[in-house]
Design a protein that fits this description.
Layout: H1 3-19, E1 22-23, H2 27-44, H3 58-61, H4 71-78, E2 86-87, H5 89-93, H6 107-111, E3 129-133, E4 139-142, E5 159-161
Antiparallel strand pairs: 1-2, 3-4, 3-5
Helix pairs in contact: 1-2
């Protein structure tokens, strides 16, 4: 690993350890993912997921900044996130099959705002709600609340639906 990817690895490893997550154990795959994150940081100014196309507009890409909004749902259902940066013990040991992860990102976000999209959130299969951490006030727009608040580390149970409008 070069200096940049090594520094990012240390940062992600520390956060993963603190929050109870496991990083990809395969060093070659891990290094490729870290290189992608570093390149996206240089390109866009933030660590967008290396396995998804970012727009370069922070407001449009907030859901795919690593760790992305979809990580926890992917880990629960498949044992790894979309890009396999985060994995669980069953996935590592092979007791959980390594299945393809479906793209959870709404098609409107993938295509961008400039495209004609004839699909509602309900039709895309994922209704987005705003969730508020009752401990620190952090807001997350996603189908389900995060397993853990990225700010104060409160658990999923401490989130409530935030009324909009």
């Amino acid at each position: 690993m070069n200096e940049e990817t090594e520094a990012l690895y240390r940062e992600l490893k520390e956060l993963a350890d603190e929050d109870g997550y496991i990083l990809q154990p395969d060093k070659a795959i891990l290094e490729d993912l870290l290189i992608g994150l570093v390149e996206n940081e240089k390109r866009y100014g933030y660590h967008s997921c290396p396995c998804r196309l970012a727009t370069g507009t922070l407001a449009d890409d907030m859901d795919i900044i690593c760790p992305c909004d979809y990580r926890d749902l992917d880990l629960e259902e498949f044992g790894c996130c979309y890009c396999t940066l985060y994995v669980d013990e069953d996935w590592i040991s092979g007791t959980r099959p390594h299945l393809p992860i479906p793209e959870r990102r709404p098609v409107e976000k993938i295509l961008g705002k400039g495209e004609d999209v004839d699909m509602t959130a309900a039709e895309s299969g994922s209704e987005i709600s705003v969730w508020r951490c009752t401990v620190c006030g952090y807001l997350a727009a996603r189908p389900e609340p995060p397993n853990q608040c990225p700010i104060c580390k409160a658990t999923k149970e401490r989130f409530e639906k935030f009324p909009m409008g």
